[in-house]
Every structure is written in C-alpha cells, then in structure tokens.
Amino acid sequence: MVGQVNSTPAISNLESNAIVERSEKRVLQASTAFSWAILLGGIVTIAVAVYMVVVSYSSLPWDDGWIQIDPLVNGINPLSLHWLWAQHDDHRLVITKLFLLADLRMFHARQWFLLTSIQVIQFLFLVVLSWSMRVLGGWRGRVWLAGTGLATFCLFCPSQWHNFVWGFEPCFVLPGLFVTLSFAGLLLYWIDAERQPGKPSAWRFIALSIAAALGATLSLANGNLVWPLLVVAALFLGLRRSVVLSFAATGAVTIALYLHHYVSRQAEANAGSFRGDPLRFLQFVAVYLGSVWAHASPVLAGIFGVAGAGAVCAVVLRSRLYIRTRQAFAIQLVLTLLFCLGTAFATALGRSNFGLSYAFSSRYQTVVLLFWCCLGLMLLGSVAAIKRTRVPFMVVQICLLAIMARGAYLAQYPVREARRHGFQLRVASMALFTATNDWRQFYFGVGVKPDYLMRDVPYLQENHLSIYYGDAHSQLGRPLDAVFHQASPDECAGAVESTTPMEGLLGMRALRITGWAWDYKHEQPPAEVIATSDGIITGLAAVGDWRPAIKAANPQITSSYTGYVGYVRDVNPHMAVKIYAILPGSQPSACYIANNTALGF
Q1: Element holding 188 (H helix, E strand)
Q2: What is the DSSP letter of 555?
Q3: 3-state secondary structure 526-571
Q4: pLDDT of 600 above 70
Q5: How many CB atoms lie within 10 A of CB 555?
Q6: Calpha distance 134→119 (Å, rounded)
Q7: What is the pTM of this model?
Q8: Cα separation of 528 and 154, whole Å?
Q9: Residues of 509-530 as b/e, b for ≥16 C-beta within 10 angstroms?
C-alpha cells in the first residue's frame, strides 16, 4: 500500500512534465512558423518594390536627375574634380554623380541602370544587416529569420517610393549601407582586438570602418554624422588611443574639406527660425520620425515620433550594459538609431521652414523606416533573450505580422503615386516626341522649368540618349499600314474625352488629347495609343492614367489604369484624324477607337 501511495505523485509529475514539454514544443513550432511568415512577408515586399519600379518606369530624367546632362551641355568635363565635388543643394554627391555618369556614358541615360542600382544597394544593405544579426548578434533560427524578415520589410517598404522610382536617389539609399558597414567594422575590431590584443590584422576592420564612413560622407550631407559617432563609440568601447585618433583625425579633415566653401542659405534661415521658435523645429523632428505610422496626420505622427525618440533615449541609457555584456549587434543598432535621430535634426535644420507637410515626404521614409527597423530589432533581441517562456517573442511576432498586413493594404497608395509619377513623365515624353510645347506638363511632369528642359533636350536628341535611344518615336510621320496591322474594332474599346489646342513646332497647330482605352484581346490596357491624320501617324499618347470610374462602369475591364494622354501634331479642321489602340504581339496591331468627330474640331 505504501508503494502505491508514493508512486502516484511521481506519475503525476511525469505527466505534468510531458504536458509542459508538448506545450513548449507546440509554441516553438508556432513561433518558427511565424518567423517564416515574417520572412515571407519581407520577400513579398521586395516583389512589390520591384513591381512598382517596373510599372512606373520612364527613361526621361526627373527634377534633379537632369544634372547628369548639365555638364555636357555646358561643356564641362563630368569627370573633373570640380564638378564631382561641387555642392548640389545642401550636399556633395560625389558617388551619386559617378552613378549618373555611368548611366550616361554606358547606358545612354535611360535610367534603368540607376533604378536597378538602387534596388541592388538596398539588397546589399539587407545582406549586411542580416549578416550583422548572425555574426555580431549571434542570432539563429527563428530569431534570425524574424529579424531578417523585418529588415527586408523596412528596407523595401513601398512608402519610400520616391527613392525607388527616381534615378537620382542612390544618394538617399547609400548612407544607410555605408554607415552600417562602418559601425560593423568598428565592432569587428573591438571583438578581434579583445580576443587577441595587439593583433596587427585587426586594423583591416578600422580601414573598412573609415572607408565606409568616407563613402557615407560622399553620398549625402548626413554622412558627416558618422564621424562623431565613431569617435564616441571608440571611446566608450575602450579602444586604443591610436584608433580613436584615427577616427578623429580622418573625420576632422573630411568634415573640414566638406565645409570648405559650403553654403546653405536654407539651413541658415532655419537656424534663425529655430532660435526664434524651437518648438516648431522640434515638432518637425517628431513628425518626421513618426511619419511612417500616420500618413498626413501631424498630431498622430508627432505622438509616434516622440515615443520613438523616447525609446532611443531608453536604449542609449542601456549602452553600458550592452558593452559590459559584449552585445555587439545591440551596440550597432544603438549607433544606427543615433545616426537616424541626427539625420532627423539635420533635415529639420534644412527643411522645417517648408512646413510640417514636408516631413511626410516619401524621400525621408528611407531613414525613418531604418529608425523603426532598428527599434524593432532591439525589441526582438530583448524578448528572445527571455528564457522563462517563448510567449513574449510570439506576441512580438504577431505584432510584426499585423504591421506587415497593414503595410500590404496600404501599399496600393504609394504604388499608385509611383505609377502616376511615371505616367506624367511618359506624357511629357510624348509632348517632346511630337514637338508640342506643353509647358505645364514639362514643369509639373518633369520637375524642371521649360526653358531649362529645352536647353538640354537637343543634346539628348543629337546623342540618342534617354527617350531618344532606340526607335520609340520612329513611327511618327509613317503610314499606319506600313507599321501596324489592322485589328478588329471588337478587340478593343475606348473613347476620347477631351481635346485642348496647343502650340506646336514652328507655330503649327497641335492638340492634347485625353481618354481611355482597353485591349479586350489581352485583357489589359493597350501598349500605347496613336493618332493618324489622313492615314499618317501624327500623334502619340502614353497609357496608364488611373481611371477607377471607367473600370466601375465596365465590368469587363479589370484594371483602373486605362487612361491615356497624348498629342497630335500638325492638325487642322479639314484633316481626318483617327485614334487607335496598339495591341501587343509578334506583329503589333492597331485597333480603331475614335475619329475626328469625337475630337470635336
């Protein structure tokens, strides 16, 4: 009887332990599945970013992108140190200018090299960040998968669409990569020197750190912030005096050269504004940091921004703990957070006078997303270190998946903005092809003054660059039957909605036409729309304007991007003008849409 009584608790304990083990196993399996889901969400984000670049592509430069043409038009050697070092706005864009020059000399200024480079830079940044998690942080398994997924989502999030579809923007994505490499080099030296004091080969990591810091400085003005961070970090890490002096001396010389003959009138004006109204300045910083969470809501964005800044302060206060416990990756994240915070203040110094709406610019989202990515990674690392239970980590994983789901829903808006941006550039290209002086389209679509554009366009024509590379406009002036086969009118649908008289070359009359078109045969918008006058192709139109009302009114149409805008040159009231949708295929065909009766002239 005694043996039976004593065996009961033992059996109960065994059963209880088995239940706990099964429960923990299920939790671990669910957590691993969540990590894979987070990584998958990041991969999908890359696909959306690439899709956005493809559907918004135009080979015509936009806004500051025209500086790649300027030196050649003005007879300046683009490889000269003077042009490469010359200040552009508030920055010295040496590396970006080299990218622009490569696109011009090797790829005919068609922009795709620049746009591809931006994606490659972000991917390299992701590789470095993921590598840091594994090597500097010791992350493995579900923690590393979740961290890599979060980084992927942030680095390729469509909310920063401007920096993805604008060929001028390597300057905005390069600093993050270089700064991360610089901090990683510093920490690798710290780890290596600690293991083997006085090891000469460890200096290669300092060389990497300095080279990457120089790359950041030559990419954008905020790259100068990395130097004081490196010096302070080297001091706190207790590195050798020679290392500290190397960073301090190189940084001092670099910043001194950067500021030599440097002029920033906007920053000077904003500095005066800061002294007079510091609250407004700080409000800009807060909205800037929180803009990714609350589109166009300054109050909500400001709340998130203050919360994010507060979280950074809390993280910085724990820096000594990270150093004492040798948490190299956590130190890297702290330094990156301080870099992002410094960038927010530097941006406010140069842009706060433009108003709070400017803090929501998609260009700035690249830095803001990196800021919140680092905070998210800090949170992941902290909860993963809790040994008692895996539940907190799962809660964080679920929150990340919820954020990704919300991001997936909101992605339609930046994608739409990117497509609109690309469409306006393509419309401007049609105006240039048809020699139509649509000054408003040039100003708002291309982002430069028309006289500036007219000065540079002849160089593009003469050297077959940008939109003039290839035969995109060679069909103008040719008979329709010599270029396209005739398709049945049943294979397409469309209409002309408006016409506006415009001034053409040498005083000839031209028209701006708008409307919509649909390719029933391929169930998509047509490849392009053209116009003919007496059987000769005299007009071109870009397709892809957002027209949700057309889709709603026609159940057979499955896309909202059916609108077109174009130009017809050399028109007069007696010409027989017809509009055709061009259907793709091995032999493209022209499908009739409307005639001069619909045009109304």
Answers
A1: helix 170-195
A2: T
A3: CCEEEEEECCEEEEEEEEEECCHHHHHHCCCCCCCCCEEEEEECCC
A4: no
A5: 7
A6: 23
A7: 0.92
A8: 35
A9: bbbbbbbbbbbbbeebbbebbb
Tokens representing 292 are 């990714």
Count of C-beta atoms within a 10 Å radius of residue 79: 12
* Number of domains making up the chain: 3
Which tokens go with 141?
Answer: 């398994």
Helix axes 365-384, 170-195, angle to 10 degrees: 30
> Which residue has 């830095």 as its token pair?
367
pLDDT by residue (tens digit) across 399-415?
A: 999 999 999 999 999 99
DSSP 242-270: HHHHHHHHHHHHHHHHHHTT---HHHHHH
Mean pLDDT, residues 157-183 taken together: 96
**Do 481 and 550 have their domain in common?**
yes
d(CA 429, CA 435): 10
569: Cα within 13 Å, side-chain hemisphere = 20
- Residue 408 domain-assigned (yes or no): no
In a domain, 410, yes or no: no
Structural domain span for residue 538: 477-601
DSSP assignment letter at 24? H
One domain for residues 522 and 600: yes
Task: Tell me how far apart the alpha carbons of residues 387 and 273 are, in angstroms, rounded to a whole number.
Answer: 50
In what helix (H) or strand (E) does residue 408 lie, and over which residues does it extend?
helix 391-410
